[in-house]
Amino acid sequence: MTVFDPNALSMPVRSVAEMTRAGVDAPAVVARVTYGGQSAAAAAGVADLATNAPASGAQSFEIGSQTKMMTAVMILQLSEEGLVDLDAPAADYLPAGTVAGVANADTATVRQLLSMTSGIGNYTDAVGTDGVPLFLAAIRDNPDTVFGPEAALGIARGMAPTGAPGEAYFYSNTNYLLLGQMIENLTGQNFFEALQDRILTPLGMTDTRPQLAFGDDRLSCYLTDPTTGELIDVTFAQWETRGEGGVVSTTADMTAFLQGLLVDKTLLGAAALAEMTDFRITDAGPGGTISFGLGLVQVVLDNGTTAIGFTGGTLGTASSTYLDPATGAIVSVAGTVPEADSVGGAFALYQAALSDEAWA
Known about the structure:
The chain has 360 residues and is an alpha+beta fold. 31% of the residues lie in helices and 19% in strands. The chain contains twelve helices and 14 strands. It has helices spanning 6-9, 16-21, 67-80, 96-99, 110-114, 134-141, 149-156, 173-187, 191-203, 251-263, 270-276, 342-354; strands at 28-35, 38-48, 53-54, 61-62, 209-210, 222-224, 231-233, 247-249, 280-285, 288-292, 297-301, 306-313, 318-323, 330-335. It has a nine-stranded antiparallel sheet with strand order 3-2-1-14-13-12-11-10-9, sandwiched between helices. Strands 4-8-5 form a three-stranded antiparallel sheet. The protein has a two-stranded antiparallel ribbon with strand order 6-7. Helix 3 packs across helix 8, helix 3 packs across helix 9 (191-203) and helix 7 (149-156) crosses helix 8 (173-187).
């Protein structure tokens, strides 16, 4: 297991252009486009730098925050079953010890957690006196201990709120960490057991599993040391929070998820899906708008292109899966460094598919 370099763990996020100028590329990129009843997958690079084995489009990768789409679906399913009132305090469905000390967690509603309007601080933003994010320092200093939900909530308990519940949008992983705990509390199942029963099995997603369930088909993932440019293998980092991340999947399975949720509409009833896709603009600027629903993101470009899905990042990956509701096209992309431009890659692949006469 790699013992992480603290300098690498505290590196700033750099743009793709900066990474290109620095000569750093993702060791592997995998992609899948599904459009017009056809599907094509591709891969470039190597699955692991130690072996130089070629990457395959069928290999799995850490999906990071794309997990949030699945968490939101399960909460909405529980709402349909009468077990959750979206407008009740989330604390009503969580053990008192779980919300204790987390600012706003005692009053914010389930809907506010889902829509990122709870005002609860983002635990991954908390930094120590040395400038290193606290969660990264915990992973670095305890490489044989899994950094899980309780450790993450321990960090959140020391954070100030970002605002009053319902006041404004603020992206916080802690929201979905709490929703993951809610699923476990209400179902009596481990998060991954509930995920298997409610989403993976119904959709035939056979290659999706917990992040720490390693297999030979897994793409290794890497973090760049900002001082040396060296790629550090972080594949086996013991980080598995449940609800806001913690899942490994493939481009085929992520495509199946969006197909089932938004095209075939087999996971949720019409009313729940309408609530999930009630998008509110969170960012507008040159080029288009970004809006957040209940666990889904909608991007609308100035040229009229619309995409619905999510982007995820981990210590060593960047990935995106998006659907164009107008055409039914789904694109899923992943790169094995966190700086990979998975969103730009997804949009570029989509535009290429639409303009390809052979595909048409």
